[in-house]
Specification:
By secondary structure, the protein is of the alpha/beta class. The chain has one domain: 3-Layer(aba) Sandwich (Rossmann fold). Helices cover 42% and strands 15% of the residues. The chain contains eleven helices and eight strands. Strands 1-2-4-3-5-6-7-8 form an eight-stranded mixed sheet, with helices on both faces. It starts with a strand and ends with a helix.
């Protein structure tokens, strides 16, 4: 793993494939570390001829954590938004966009393909709207637009997401069961959850860093950013929107709204997929990302 200093923070990253190849930047979701983009998935993309870069968002993994910031007051946040006031939050998704662009700058990458999942999908969307000259293609997976009229997750899912887990270094079994219960609830019904692989992944994450308060800060960033549909209308990069038909955390209608908000976007609903990326779908999703990336290559070639 390597580190760069950018946008006032430290960003940790690693990469797969030829460093001289076109880059794909993978952006993680809410509370997720970069290793949620598993090595086999990254290697599958790299085998298609790309340099694949994954990194830890701020407040995740080994990138800078905003532990000096107070715990977000969600009631005050909601009241400010309802009143049309700028909420007091440590950062918004626009700051996280700046982190990702800064990472590309530090790596001297002028243009890249961006792929984001969940919250990372919103970051990728905003990168594509705010920095069109830097984006070769966009793939948004199981994400949304911040449209307040869209359906939300079931109350029990939100309660599980925000409930404090047992401390992993004091009650490892309880911590793992808490994590597994949530993973089972949002998993793809057509693809059995590999519980042992999930345990290994979660324990690896806790060894990298354990900061339960970071989740609330990232939730606040999403809420404070709000509805981004007007921004998405400016996206010019070839775009693919992938969404699980059975997604219980961010319902399918959110993906449909994302695709409808981006000119020329391809919408790819995936049967039996929930709010995860099962290994059985690695091949089809990697192929779709590659196809979208090649659309840009072909367009550029045809213009020469």
């Amino acid at each position: 793993m390597e580190f760069v200093e950018t946008n006032g923070i430290t960003v940790g990253y690693d990469s797969f494939g030829d460093e001289g190849a076109e880059a794909i930047l993978l952006i993680s979701g809410l509370g997720a570390q970069m290793i949620r983009w598993t090595a086999p998935f990254c290697e599958r993309l790299a085998a298609k001829g790309f340099r694949v870069i994954r990194f830890d968002n701020r407040d995740a993994g080994r990138s800078t954590h905003f532990t000096h910031s107070p715990t977000p007051d969600f009631s005050a946040l909601a009241s400010a938004i309802a009143a049309g006031r700028t909420p007091d939050v440590p950062y918004t998704l626009y700051d996280m966009v700046g982190d990702a662009i800064g990472l590309l700058d530090a790596l001297q990458i002028d243009r890249a393909h961006v792929v984001g999942r969940s919250m990372g999908g919103m970051i990728a969307q905003l990168m594509s709207s705010e920095y069109p000259e830097r984006i070769l293609s966009l793939t948004s997976i199981m994400s949304s637009t911040g449209n307040p009229n869209l359906p939300s997750a079931a109350p029990d899912i939100m309660a599980m997401l925000t409930k404090r887990a047992p401390h992993p270094f004091e009650d490892e079994a309880g911590f793992l069961e808490h994590s597994l219960a949530f993973a089972r609830r949002i998993a793809s019904p057509g693809y059995p959850l590999n519980e042992e692989a999930h345990r290994v992944l979660v324990l690896e994450e806790t060894k990298r860093v354990y900061d339960p308060a970071a989740l609330g800060r990232q939730i606040s960033a999403i809420a404070a950013t709000g509805d981004i549909r007007s921004r998405l209308a400016r996206i010019v990069a070839p775009t693919l929107v992938v969404h699980g038909v059975e997604d219980q955390l961010i319902p399918l209608e959110c993906g449909r709204d994302t695709a409808a908000s981006i000119p020329g976007a391809e919408f790819m609903p995936v049967d039996s997929m929930g709010h995860d990326v099962p290994s059985a779908l690695y091949s089809s999703i990697a192929d779709a990302i590659d196809r979208t990336a090649r659309r840009k290559v072909q367009e550029c070639t045809s213009q020469v």
